[in-house]
Design a protein that fits this description.
By secondary structure, the protein is an alpha/beta fold. The protein has one domain (3-54, 74-336): Aminopeptidase (3-Layer(aba) Sandwich), CATH 3.40.630. The chain is 31% helix and 16% strand. It is built from 7 helices and 12 strands. The strands form 3 sheets. Strands 2-11-10-12-7-3-6 form a 7-stranded mixed sheet, sandwiched between helices. Strand 8 and strand 9 (232-236) form a beta hairpin. Helix 3 (112-118) packs across helix 6, helix 4 (165-178) runs parallel beside helix 7 (317-336) and helix 6 crosses helix 7. The relative contact order is 0.20.
């Protein structure tokens, strides 16, 4: 990272640290002063969301195909869901009202009702595959719980695909396929051993997949969120009729707010609004507000590309798996209605 970028990042860290010492954050505040958020800031400063060739030591390594029988998960609701992270930080549940709502950090003011009425412009053909799932932050994992303990490669991260967000992607892919879609799940590691440059590497993977498979119309970059406030980590909590423990999900849509070219971001947003409505109709409380951000997050590569956060670091893997099952079923049905 260039010297001025490093200096800028440390300046941000010091300023935010001073602000946090001066006053407490309200409960439920989305704390951006986490190692993950600061690393993401470094990525933005270094790459500007442009694809960058990784150093030889940071070459991504392919992940093996999913095992025929991945480890069994604890039944839900979990009999002993942890109330603290491995480092001892308290975990508290938080439910964010979703529906047709927007968490907007941009200068734009889109009319979600109008976008829903207009509907997405993309149409899905019969040629396969139609959906691509990638993971920019492939190593993201969840709070260890009974039956779901893993060898950590870093805080809340693991290289074991049975316990990382890759496992959640496997479940989402399966549910979309059950609905009748053909899915390509790229399980390549993009954030290890080097976290910096992960968006550049995942962007190159998306470009290659779109070139090799022009039938792809929807691209999903699947993540696990991280939320904290003061000395607390939050787990998202959907309220299901059967009382089963379940994480919430969030659609993240990038724009051209940083000045980088992204002419089709409104098409991405229309797709997010369409899917948000479908998922919330099928499973009220499963979604959080759509997050409209200034960064592109590679979404300029495809007008049908979205970043989706399934749960947070305070959630357990079974809670994220349950969310992916419900999300995939509702999304799959909605996307099948866009078939030509």
């Amino acid at each position: 990272m260039r010297r001025w970028m490093r200096a800028a990042l440390w300046g941000v860290m010091l300023l935010l640290g001073a602000a946090m010492l001066g006053r407490a954050l309200p409960a439920g505040f989305w704390c951006v002063v986490t190692p993950q958020r600061l690393l993401e800031t470094a990525v933005r400063l270094e790459t500007g969301q442009r694809a960058a060739a990784p150093a030889a030591s940071a070459e991504p390594s392919p992940i093996a195909a999913p095992t025929a029988e991945p480890p069994a998960l604890s039944p839900s609701p979990e009999p002993s869901a942890p109330d603290r992270t491995p480092d001892g930080t308290e975990i508290l549940p938080a439910s964010f009202p979703g529906g047709l709502t927007l968490k907007n950090e941009t200068d734009y003011a889109p009319d979600l009702a109008a976008l829903l009425a207009e509907g997405p412009g993309l149409r899905i053909g019969a040629e396969e595959p139609q959906v691509l799932i990638v993971h920019t932050h492939t190593s993201e994992a969840y709070t260890p719980s009974d039956g779901c303990r893993y060898e950590a490669s870093d805080s809340m991260r693991t290289q074991d695909p049975n316990y990382s967000v890759i496992r959640v992607g496997d479940v989402l892919a399966s549910k979309l396929e059950d609905a009748g879609l053909s899915v390509l799940h790229d399980r390549t590691v993009n954030d290890y051993p080097s976290y910096t440059g992960a968006y550049g590497r995942s962007g190159e993977a998306v470009r290659a997949a779109l070139a090799d498979h022009p039938s792809i119309r929807v691209v999903i970059d699947l993540h696990r969120d991280a939320m904290c406030a003061d000395d607390v980590v939050y787990k998202t909590a959907a309220a299901l009729p059967d009382g089963e423990s379940c994480a919430q999900v969030m659609f993240v849509v990038g724009t051209d707010g940083t000045g980088l070219e992204h002419p089709d971001w409104r098409e991405n947003l229309k797709l997010a609004v369409y899917l948000q409505d479908a998922v919330e109709t099928a499973h009220p409380t499963l979604t959080r507000p759509i997050w409209l951000v200034n960064e592109r997050y590679n979404q300029h590569l495809c007008p049908g590309m979205l970043l989706i956060e399934v749960g947070s670091s305070g959630n357990t893997l079974p809670e994220a798996i349950r969310a992916a099952e419900l999300l995939g079923g509702a999304m799959g049905d909605a996307l099948m209605k866009l078939r030509e």
